[in-house]
Specification:
The protein is an alpha/beta fold. The protein is built from twelve helices and eight strands. The structure holds acetoacetyl-coenzyme A (CAA).
Amino acid sequence: MSEIERVGVVGAGLMGAGIAEVCARSGCDVLVVEQNRDAVELGSRRLLGSLDRAVRSGKLTTAEREQAAWRLRWSTDLGDLADRQLVVEAVGEDEQLKTDVVGTVCKVLTDRDAVIASNTSSIPIMKLATATDRPGNVVGLHFFNPVPVMPLVEVVGSLTTSPRTRDRVESFVTRRLGKQTIRATDRAGFVVNALLVPYLLAAVRMVESGTATAADVDAGMRLGCAHPMGPLELCDLIGLDTVTAIAESMYAEYHEPLYAPPPLLRRMVEAGLYGRKTGRGFHPYPSKKEEAA
Ligand code: CAA
């Protein structure tokens, strides 16, 4: 079977833009699909900003940045993905939305061996596979935020994922993208989120109950346990909307109280306090303009 060279990414939010970036930096031809021109504009600014950051920190040369940007194309039409060998779905953590995208992508792909991967954090891969007529080609590829920095990808096979598909994407992720993989079974939360999410929710409950402030909870885990960031800073990085959606999927799967999103988290999402992406979550993230003022 031919090596994967032509990659499609659906969704150019934090995760989709990061996945498209690492694929383009690894020499793949990448087509990114977003739902409208504004989303394309925002996603491409996010991605090019990240490439610029890599140039500033000496991880990329200017020539490599140009080559990566040149390998990226943008579209608002899922039909343009027809010739892709691998499509990674990275839309919002919503089961219906993901099912629709995966079903449509499967219909447009002309290569019968093409792989359809989902970057879902918690939705069972089987639910997405059953939306297609080739469930053997559907697999979970779960990247971590920030994608250009975090070395791990969870590879999640469902009951119907073919060993060929799993081997093919594992080889692509390790040999082409230079990331490390771990295998997880198709259970909500896989390996990492099954451990991480209860910890994040416990930190939210600690703030909610007045045990400690967000700043002190974060300082506690940074300074006391040498974590690179505290749990509430991490919630802000992931996005409180995403943390809530993941927790809800896990609660739906296991019905364990430790996965239930606490009321404070829900209220913050209802208020649009999503974290870094909206400028405020458990901590404020003023824009450059606001900082200057
Ligand atoms: N995009 C690209 N590169 C970034 C970046 C971003 N958003 N944020 C930071 N970086 C790079 C910087 O350029 C820098 O690179 P150099 O060392 O080459 O200069 C490096 O990362 C370190 O960045 P900083 O010095 O600015 O900041 P830091 O040392 O505080 O590190 C961090 C930032 C990498 C985010 C670090 O705090 C960290 O590792 N945090 C934990 C992240 C984590 O746990 N992610 C997993 C979240 S869970 C998930 O994603 C799965 C899910 O389903 C929810």
